[in-house]
Amino acid sequence: MAPKEVIGRSLGIGLLFLGRALAAQPTIDAEPRYGAVVRLLEAMIARERRDKDIPALSIALVDSQRVIWARGFGWADSTKGAPATAETIYRVGSVSKLFTDLAVMQLVERGELALDTDIRRYLPDFRPRNPFAKPITLRQLMSHRAGLVREPPRGNYFDASGTPLGATILSLNRTALVFPPESTTKYSNAGIAVVGAVLERLRREPFARYVKRAVLEPLGMRTSAFEPSVAVRQRVSSAQMWTLHGRTFDAPTFELGMAPAGSMYSSVLELTHFVRALLRGGEGVVQRATLDTMWTPQYTAPGAKSGFGLGFAIGESDGERVVRHGGAIYGFATELVVMPSAQLGVIVAAAKDGANIVASRIALTALAAIRAQRAGRPPPEPQVTHPISLALAKRAAGHYRAGARSITIARYDSALNLHSDGGSAYSRLRLLAGDTLVVDDALDFGQRVIVRDDAVVLGESAYPRVSTAAVGAIPNEPSQSHRGLIGEYGWDYNTLYIYEQAGQLRALIEWFFDYPLTQVSQDVYAFPRHGLYIGERLIFTRDGSGRATRVTAAEVVFPRRRIPGEDAAVFRIKPLKPIAALRREALAATPPNESGNFRPSDLVELVSLDPSLKLDIRYATRDNFLSVPVYSQARAFLQRPAAEALVRAHRALAAKGYGLLVHDGYRPWYVTKIFWEATPVASRIFVADPSQGSRHNRGCAVDLTLYELATGKPVIMPGGYDEMSDRSYPMYPGGTSRQRALRELLREAMENEGFRVYDAEWWHFDYKDWRQYRIGNETFERLGARG
């Protein structure tokens, strides 16, 4: 299905035999004449997989009625050593909609359905509130012009409960149309669910079974299904979810209640049967005239060349018409594109959430390369980007403004992210050439940023530099009313973030889609007039303290998430074993042996260099994640170069009214072993593996935060110290703009002195020379006695 919008019969007897032969091949080698095309695509796919960390990707190319190349890259299941092939099965998301719509058009041809009849003729119990004069029709639903909500209240993209299609459709009776029918393009998964329900009601057969019998099997797509068998599930690629702040996890596998909109399973090789049928004008599926109707933009001016047809998205590439659809469902991204006049088709499927722009670029590159080869020209090389040098990254980072518009280029070592108009949307920059950067990530590609000495240029506009600093003036906290709404809502597999930026609430939904919200009334906010949820609202429910307990966003109820440590001053876990026993085992154990040349240890106590450094050594108290003291003394040490750099950062911060408050520095190895053995496996990203030693053990890591010089009080960050949750990540997008600015202020001060923040903990910084010191295991008592 396309929860993330992306613009997006039988075969003849001889072709059916060919289809069966193709289905037995995990790879179809390219014909010699396409060698240059395939080499170009193989190189591009290798780059994209490596750069975007795509576990598996499969591709198939169709020229007229021949599959001219099909293969997979990467691993369908790395744990079992199973490679991705052309037969690897993917969840193809909204590509599913095309098969639902084709099944409807078959019945339209037979006179059993009418595109422009009130839908209630077929579904009398489907009655969302429609205050407008026009009734809802199949034509509107199939071209996303019915004005229906994007997601049904039940059986939606977020609903893991297994809601049946009938209950999904009935839940829409609790909704109202967002726009008058035919007036506005509003992509709706709910709408195609209704289309599928019409099929189910009319044919008196479960939707998945009917479409398999009426469309998939006649096409020769014998493995593809909306209702996967055990055998199909065993061939589905594993897939990866990811967050803007850097966490990855396995994709959920639950089925959607709106199956007609996005629940099909298929392989790129099986989808070639569908593409070849389309290139034959629908032969064996629908009549050519029917296909022409489906490929005509609906509710547009005569002669329009782009828009939604019936199911298909219509557009142009190199002056030629293309018909296509993308698909995005948990962990998977698919692109199917056909150029009818050139008799070409491409299918790309990837096992990484949200990677639709990657699939689309590969598909369009393939079309252009094949057409060039046909014309006797070398295939056009796709744009290749490169890592940014540290020098250029430092030169580009900062704040820029032109009139009312502003942008920020945020630096993380030599990596750069582009933030437009104060938003937190992820747009990673890479080097194109010289001083030209380009947005290039799994979600987007192409926007160029030209770096000048005192400005950057985006498009036709120059943005003069306002500041080279990562952080300007620290914002004030938002209103009390806003603070009660800020937080995380939803589920581990799909979390909605409500956060504040520049005094405005924003919603980050479906992991990647970031929207400013407009307040309608006290607890009602509107999504903007663009994006996934155009025209829809968020309604918050608060408890007696004014804190929201849930939000109904675009008809979906998101409960507030319980974040461990969110409401406590100290995050705590239940240790896997008693700490006393772990301490005995750790003290009796030996650190890992290391070979090589190392600097002699020169651990120095931090407060001896600058008494204004504040200490809060929680591991010497019960106020830590283990709830027992693991240090006998509240002291902090670092190797001398790291300690001196820390003091420089502390003094630089004083000019902005802040100082450093240290939680931990050098940590004896035996304590690292206690932490590891006490912590649940799922949370061990937040503790070091004692078999490798830690940078704390080497005296080159420090845990710390900021305190206000004026009050002596610690600042409030987006998450708490030692909190084992997503809020601990340095790029966590939630919280308030003040909290994030303070987090960035700390990071900038530390990075300026040679430290680097740990990927999963905003408070943990490693000094650049940590590799030059051995793992240490001396206790604080011995260090103190020696000093």
Topology readout:
Elements: H1 13-23, H2 35-52, E1 56-63, E2 66-77, E3 82-83, E4 90-91, H3 96-109, H4 138-142, H5 165-171, H6 189-203, H7 207-216, H8 230-235, E5 240-242, E6 248-250, H9 259-262, E7 265-266, H10 268-279, H11 288-294, E8 307-308, E9 313-317, E10 320-329, E11 332-339, E12 344-350, H12 356-374, H13 390-396, E13 398-402, E14 405-412, E15 415-420, E16 428-433, E17 436-440, E18 445-451, E19 455-458, E20 461-467, H14 480-483, E21 487-491, E22 494-501, E23 504-509, E24 513-516, E25 518-521, E26 524-526, E27 537-542, E28 548-553, E29 556-559, H15 579-588, E30 603-605, H16 606-609, E31 614-615, E32 637-639, H17 640-654, E33 658-664, H18 669-678, E34 701-708, H19 737-751, E35 755-758, E36 761-767, H20 780-786
Helix pairs in contact: 2-12, 3-6, 3-7, 5-6, 15-18, 17-19
What share of the residues does DSSP label as strand, in percent? 15-25%
Into which percent range does the helicity of residues fall? Answer: 25-40%
**Distance between the terminal alpha carbons, to the nearest Å?**
65 Å
Strand order of the largest sheet: 3-2-1-12-11-10-9-8
Rounded Rg: 29 Å
- SS field, number of helical segments: 20
Task: Give a quick account of the main beta sheet: strands, pairing sense, barrel closure.
Answer: 8 strands, antiparallel
Question: Which term fits the overall shape?
Answer: globular
Total strands: the figure is 36
Alpha-beta content class: alpha+beta
Average predicted local confidence, pLDDT: 93
Question: Which spans have pLDDT < 50 for at least 5 consecutive residues?
Answer: 1-24
